[in-house]
Fold:
Amino acid sequence: MKILVATGNRAKFREMRDILREHGIEAERVDVDYPELQSDSPEEIAAHGARYCAESLGKPVIVEDSGLFVDALNGFPGPYSAYVYETIGNEGILRLLEGEEDRSARFISVVGYCEPGGKPVTFTGEVRGRIAEEPRGEEGFGYDPIFIPEGREKTFAELGVEEKCKMSHRARALEKFARWFKRHAGR
Ligand code: IMP
Structure:
C-alpha cells in the first residue's frame, strides 16, 4: 500500500514515512508548492491543501498541517507557527513566556487526504505538554527543543525522533489516517 505525501519539509516527511511504515503504508514525497489558506482552523488548511495537491498531481495525496498552541498566549502561534518560527523562533517564544507560570501547550497535527475530483478528509492528532525554560536537545526540527510532552522531563529534541514518534501529534493523526485508509482502499 502506497501514498504520496506533499511536503517540502524533509524532517517532517521522514517522521511521516517512519510512522506510516509502522502501519504498513509506504510513503513517497512529492514537492508541490501549494498555497496555504489563511484560516484559524488547521482542518480547513489541511483540507484545502490536500484538494489543491490532488488536483494538480492528478493522484490521491496527503498533506499535513501542524502547529504549536501555547495556552498562556491564547493559542499563539497556532496557525501562524511556521511564520513565527521563521521570525522570532524558539528564543522568541521563550521571551514571550518569561515570568509566566502556566507553560502548558499542545501540538496539533492535521492530515488531509484527497483524491482528484473528490472531497478532502481530515484526521487530527494532539499531544499536550509544556514549554521548557530553555532550548534543549539536538534532534528533530522546529519547536522540538522547547516542547516537553506530558509525562516526560525531556524535550522532543532530547527524546529523539524515534521516541517522539511514539507519542507525537503527527503519529496520532497518521494512525487515524492509516486505519481509515486501509479500510477505504479495501472497498
Ligand atoms: P507546517 O505544518 O509545515 O506549516 O509547520 C508549522 C510550524 O510548526 C513549522 O514552523 C514547524 O517547524 C512547526 N512544527 C510542526 N510540527 C512540529 C514538530 O513536530 N516539532 C516541532 N515543530 C513543529
